[in-house]
Design brief:
The chain has helices spanning about 85-90, 115-120, 155-175, 195-205, 220-225, 250-255, 275-280, 325-340, 355-365, and strands spanning about 5, 5-10, 30-35, 40-50, 55-65, 70-80, 100, 105-115, 125-130, 140-145, 150, 185-190, 210-215, 230-235, 245, 265-270, 280-290, 310-315, 350-355, 370-375. By secondary structure, it is of the alpha/beta class. Strands 1, 6, 8, 9, 10, 11, 19 and 20 form an eight-stranded mixed β-sheet that branches. The two termini are about 25 Å apart. InterPro entries: ADH-like_N, ER, GroES-like_sf, NAD(P)-bd_dom_sf, QOR-like. Keywords: NADP, Oxidoreductase. It holds the Pfam family ADH_zinc_N_2. This is Enoyl reductase (ER) domain-containing protein.
Amino acid sequence: MLSRLIATTSLRTRPALSSGRTAPFNLTLSTTSARLFSTPVTQRAAVVHEAGDADQLKLESAWPVPKIADGQVLVRNEFAGINFIDTYHRKGLYPRDFPFIGGQEGGGVVAETTPQAEAAGIKVGDRVTYSVFGSYAEYTAVPAGKILPVPDGVGIDVATSCVVQGMTAHYLTTDAHAGLIKPGEWMLIHGVGGGTCQWAAQMAKARGYKVIGTVSKGKESVARALGCDELIVLDEVPGASYEDYESVDVVKRVMEITDGVGCKAVIDGIGLSTVDISIGSLARRGIFVSFGNASGAVPAFPVLRLIAKSAFVTRPKLLDYTVDRAELLSRSDEIFGWLKDGTLKVAVDTSFPLDNAPDGHKYLESGASKGKVLYDCK
């Protein structure tokens, strides 16, 4: 028999932003009462029916609640994370079958379990996060193996922020560079004023690397708080989510900072605007880690370009660095540990009501965010 629960929550008042939205900083959840209930048949969900701009995210008020199979749980979402990869799916850059519920990062309370999930230790009422497709909704079916328990003292909003951006930053700074950088050597991280690379800069420092961050003038104050050894401050590109990489000779500055050696690893989520800069900033036998396309996709280039410094290049994705539950938990345990001991500071910028789904994508793509952007699914 499926177990079902509805939780009544006590929420601390959230500060209002100038835009009228609310910032869910340090949200805490406490279960004050519980009762069995029948899961609704339909729900609200932000659905993409065809590729296009942010307005293709359509709120459906009577979308079917998914039925769960044994080994899955049903999560009643409180928050869903908004990530650049979601915009790539919406635009069709990374093709999906239509229609689909947007998102792949959520957090909330377990509303239903199955025998296999219960055998794995997951209970109705557990506070959890996850990364599977379909998080822009009130309910998401999640395989038990993808569930991450949220420790006491960590809010659901912060925990939800960890799943894609935090886990991505973790694998980028621990494994994607294939061990070609050692503590005490230089790492260049582009766009440290944004979500994922705020995490990456702090994690790189925790690993003992020396960090150069690029950042726009409008986000310089955010970047200064991350502990980067050096910052390269760039002009802004109005209405864009990335900096003006033609406003400063970044390669020249990198070589000045590193005494002509260059960086053993470059973490690059910008894409088209930075590919030449990233390759040019490498040290001998350094690695260019290209993980995003904020300014456009990286074009194909001849491998012979890498010969000047016998360089390496990789284009990784999160799924290949969370291949089983053991790897997933090892990453999340370290991230949550860093959050609790203060090694990591997470900035939740703002949340948008799920009913206003297009606004969340527009805000992220505008470059205005200085931290994690969420949907409030409650």
